[in-house]
Amino acid sequence: MAEHEISERYLDGFAHVLTEVATTGRRLTREELKSRRVLGEQAAEAGLGLRALVVAHLAAARAAWPVGPGSTESTLAALAAVEQAVDVFAEGYERAQRLTVRREEAARREFIDDLLYGRSDLGRLAERAERFGLRLSRAHAVAVAEGPRSYAEGGAVARRVEAEVLARFDSHSILLTTKNGRLLCIAPGDTDEVLAHFARQAHTATEGGRVAIGRPQSGPGGVVQSYEEALATLEMAERLDLPGTVLRAADLLVYPVLARDRQALADLVLHTLGPLSAARGGPGPLLDTLVAYFDSGCVAAEAARRLSLSVRALTYRLERIHHLTAADPADPAHRYKLQTAVIGARLLGWPGQAL
């Protein structure tokens, strides 16, 4: 259909009404206003640009403009009619656009929920994903950022991070969104630079927040696997008080392996560290000593500094641990068992939670 024909369709009756108004001086009727509003909605749904449509209205008004004697009053009436007609046409156009945006947002949110919870048929999910630039037949990885506050879709922080990422990378294969107050970036598994850039931008935008990156996973269910892995990494980092602002699940695989058999891990903790309960003040201070000692690379001076103790006081605590557990933290033969038990205690929340 030619552009002229398109314009004529949405100008239906406009010139006739304008001529009649210029002749009689009347205002547009309720039905005429409603008709212009409906045409505006139809134009928006057809994907036409508002600017071109307004120009077409003005051109039609010029062609039908009253001339000759006594045209002043006619001109004023015609101007008022043009103002009314264009105003309600634009109102209908904008209303249709808002409804379209809301529908798109609802469809996007529904897709994201299905994608991250794995609730939809995988074949149907893969079809829907192409609409949002994702080809689920290839591997994808998910980065999840959390900060001191909850972040909403379309909020200032989410918009800022999205703008920074999409300004640098092709938006067709990247999906940025929010879920449960966190910022998410879903990208092809072979584009690690995208997730790394997202992590830097999210860390800054969330005022020092932490980002976890799941491993690339293949297939329609790969996104939800990588997402869950990133969430588990954030939770583990919180429990273990791990350092760093960007955590990669691939670098922390030892922790989920340890946590996989909870009963075996609990047995190790109780057998190895349970005797610390006999210490004055309970096992807490001595467990904290082991944590600081291992986190500092088994350097007594650094561990003492972290605990605000003298090296002598730290040495006494290590000797006490050796006496109670029969395992010497300074002995490489005993160190692995003790350190594994300490990690297990932190994963399981012992001694705060009974095992």
Structure report:
This protein has 355 residues and is α+β, with helices and mostly antiparallel strands. Helices cover 62% and strands 7% of the residues. Strands 2-3-1-4-5 form a five-stranded mixed sheet, sandwiched between helices. Helix 9 links the parallel strand 4 and strand 5. The termini are far apart. The model has no long low-confidence stretch (mean pLDDT 85).
In short:
The chain is of the alpha+beta class. The chain has helices at 3-10, 14-24, 30-45, 50-63, 71-117, 122-131, 156-166, 192-205, 222-240, 254-260, 262-273, 284-295, 300-307, 311-325, 332-348; strands at 140-146, 175-179, 182-188, 210-213, 246-248.
Low-confidence stretches: none
- Broad structural category: alpha+beta
* Number of strand segments: 5
Largest sheet: 5 strands, mixed
Query: Helicity, in percent?
Result: 55-70%
Question: Strands across the major sheet, in which order?
Answer: 2-3-1-4-5
The averaged pLDDT comes out at 85
Report how far the terminal alpha carbons are from each other.
74 Å
Shape: elongated
Please count the helical segments.
15
What percentage of amino acids are in beta strands? 5-15%
